[in-house]
Amino acid sequence: MRLLRTVFAVALTATALGACAKPVSQNALATGPVKAQDAVAASAPDTIVTGGIASSVSASYTQSMPRRIFHGTSLAGRTLEVGSAADIQLKPGEVILTFDDGPRPGKTEHILDTLEAHGVKATFLMLGSQAKAHPELAREVALRGNTVGNHTYDHADLAKMSRQDAMDDIARGATAIATVLDGAGGGLSPFFRFPYLAQTGFLRTSMLQGDVVVLDVDIDSKDYYAETADDVIQRTLKRLDARGSGIILFHDIHQRTVDLLPVFLDEIAARGYTVVSLKPRTPGVFGRSVVTASVAGVKTGQPAPF
Which of 6, 28, 41, 232 would you label with 256, given CA atoms 20 to 30 Å apart? Predict the structure, then answer.
């Protein structure tokens, strides 16, 4: 198992970084692009960075796109090596597939099969608790060429927790996932997504200063709603066509997602989109500074395995 060797120390004063903000609702998450620039968090350290705040930075990508405007010959696109969120620059017609909250037996393996059948890779933001509960499935995700990132240990709303408890939960998730993967595939990447996309300026800045790459969301499929697979497909395609490119959020824990994914991939291929594979700029977890926390097996001031 490859773990980080270097340490990140958070150097932010209490006056600059105040109390946690109220988390965003699920309805609010889908009102527009959620991709945020790092400068937003730095300039407003105590606000949650979500689509409502950051939508203006994506304005150049939100023009309406006619069907089949793109002319890709293969659904599999380029591999994008990322060292920071600023490196995630997509061209028109490019998408990144992400799956949160797994792995889930009976669901994740079918999603892996569909991705493989279409020749594309995705980024899976795992919960540490689920990776620990299903270690073989977690390793299979990585061994089949997909990128694995952290989604905390148990999907808690970090914006409602104390700073230390939130940081501990992030580190605990990373520790569990890295231990389970034990270097399988590319091991644990530095990619991280906030549960519910709920965050504070303190938490986001801490992640960025720790060289963690925070993955935001441009298109939320809302596959967690009790709808038909076709409803999810049509809504997601409509938002994708309106935007022209982006990071798409799915969850590998729902049967409707298993059912819709083959049709969705066939449809975006027909429209000329390509799927970009997201990878760390260097193998493993960069070997750079990270957030540390006082969790079991990881003492404050010692490296945490991001």
Answer: 28
